[in-house]
Amino acid sequence: MPQRQLGPFQVSAIGLGCMNLSHAYGQPPSFEAAKALLERALDQGVTLFDTAALYGFGANEKLVGQVLGPHRQRITLCSKGGMTGQPTGANGALQRVIDGRPESLRRDVEASLQRLGTDVIDLYYLHRWDKQVPIEDSVGEMARLVQEGKVRTLGLSEVSAATLRRAHAVHPITALQTEYSLWTRNPEIAVLDACRALGVAFVAFSPVARGYLTDRVLDVAHFDAKDIRRAMPRFLPGNYAANLALLETVKAVGAEAGASVAQVALAWLLHRGPDILPIPGTTSLAHLDDNLGAAAVTLSPEQMARLEAAFAPGAVQGTRYNSATQAEIDTEEFAG
């Protein structure tokens, strides 16, 4: 597995987003199946593992800690706080809450350390900027967590270039994480340039577009009731059907390169710059192997240009989030 730099850490060029194993896309796999996938990733050379307090309301951190704990010195462990499950629902049911107050972030990191079974988190992200709290206050508390040795480096998720600069002025930001793929190119508006100017690594989540950039046609009309894609405009049946036509260029490039659709999508990201680290997630061992194979795929400048032309801003039908979720984030967005 080729290596890339993530702040002070040398990590696998392709990491693993662990969310799918506990959260977001319907019924999660059994513990045994999730354990097998994490161990397979480790055996295949993956050293960058990404989780969060939100995923499964803590269950994903427990899973990652239990399975990867014996291999702690071999991996770079990343987690997130500031958006967690809190007992605010009926009868104390857990609900997703964005809370970036200093005292809440301290609570979050302490809980994450316990669930992960470690005394330090290598890279700790602010999962969402709480717009009721100045970013300087949230990052200031996170900086104190670094000073106390609870976390080694800091990251931000789903923030704009301006917010990144404000945060970086308080404490060096090691990585910025947001969605980036052929069909979500918003980071190219301003964030990628800001990251490069500040020496911040860019971590691309959902790099195969939540299953769109694969060889499998999704049954979007019958997603599981708990599948978060049900609320995403791009996956509405009409929009999804229109978006499928864009895949013809990816398939053609894949045929030329001897690569799957997902491998072309991931190779495109890797070719976009040595500072970009995709973290695809999956529950399938076969898909894991396929994703990791992208590190060996070479795309020509002409193939890169064809892919980018096919997915030019405005080509994709539907926004990536609905209006309620979009209001929670702080990123520059192309119109959808």
Automatic annotation (TrEMBL):
Gene Ontology MF, one: oxidoreductase activity
Q: Which UniProt keywords apply?
A: Oxidoreductase
GO cellular component terms, semicolon-separated? cytoplasm
Q: Which InterPro entries match?
A: Aldo-Keto_reductase (IPR050791), NAD(P)_OxRdtase_dom_sf (IPR036812), NADP_OxRdtase_dom (IPR023210)
In terms of PROSITE patterns, this protein maps to: PROKAR_LIPOPROTEIN
Domain NADP-dependent oxidoreductase as annotated: residue spans = 13-310
* Pfam assignment, any one: Aldo_ket_red
Q: Which PANTHER family did the record assign?
A: AFLATOXIN B1 ALDEHYDE REDUCTASE, ALDO-KETO REDUCTASE YAKC [NADP(+)]
Q: What is this protein called?
A: Aldo/keto reductase
Q: Which organism is it from?
A: Ideonella livida
